[in-house]
């Protein structure tokens, strides 16, 4: 994907407010072997800027493991609580529908990237099995609330 499609946090907020469309950024989450150069991501943290009638925009934070129907986090972060680290991310304009938040994390990411026109970069996760039940609870360390985002 071209760097020109990526927008700073502030540019993405303006895009969302003006176009009534979404923008997202994603960060991979590695397990305990995260220092291993061959380690693969076990999940992700996804930040989605969404249009909002009252506020103009909101930031939804989704985090969790891949191949699970359960999220470790699915929250709205108030504008005055958004960490600087998130404000430093680059966001990609996309489209997002509310029912996508019931999908497994990798399926949500696939839909966001496809809607952004960069879907060919993602594998087809729809056929993958679910590893954890919907009622599974993940430790806070997985979503990174105990360390800077």
Describe this structure in words.
By secondary structure, the chain is an alpha+beta fold. It has one domain. The protein contains four helices and five strands. A five-stranded antiparallel β-sheet has the order 4-3-2-1-5, sandwiched between helices. Strand 2 and strand 3 form a beta hairpin. It is globular and about 40 Å long. The two termini are 24 Å apart.
Features:
24% strand, five-stranded antiparallel β-sheet, 5 strands, alpha+beta, single chain, 149 residues
Short structural summary:
With 149 residues, this protein is of the alpha+beta class.
> What is the topology, as strand order, of the major beta sheet?
4-3-2-1-5
Task: Report the radius of gyration as a whole number of Å.
Answer: 15 Å
Q: Count of helices?
A: 4
Largest beta-sheet characterization: 5 strands, antiparallel
Strand content: 15-25%
Mean pLDDT: 80
- The number of strands is 5
Uncertain spans, ≥5 residues at pLDDT below 50?
123-133, 136-143
Element pattern in H and E: HEEEEHEHH
What is the topological layout?
Elements: H1 9-19, E1 22-29, E2 43-52, E3 56-65, E4 73-77, H2 84-87, E5 92-94, H3 105-115, H4 140-143
Antiparallel strand pairs: 1-2, 1-5, 2-3, 3-4
């Amino acid at each position: 994907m071209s760097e020109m499609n990526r927008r700073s946090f502030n540019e993405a907020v303006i895009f969302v407010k003006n176009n009534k469309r979404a923008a997202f950024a994603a960060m991979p989450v590695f397990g305990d072997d995260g220092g291993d150069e061959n380690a693969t991501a076990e999940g992700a943290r996804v930040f989605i800027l969404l249009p909002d009638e009252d506020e103009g925009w909101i930031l939804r934070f989704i985090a969790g493991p891949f191949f699970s129907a359960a999220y470790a986090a699915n929250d709205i972060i108030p504008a005055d609580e958004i960490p600087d680290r998130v404000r430093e991310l680059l966001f990609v304009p996309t489209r997002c529908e509310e029912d996508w938040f019931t999908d497994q994390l990798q399926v949500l990411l696939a839909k966001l990237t496809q809607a952004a026109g960069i879907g060919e970069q993602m594998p087809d996760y729809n056929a993958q099995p679910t590893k954890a039940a919907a009622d599974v609870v993940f430790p806070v360390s997985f979503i990174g609330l105990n360390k800077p985002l």
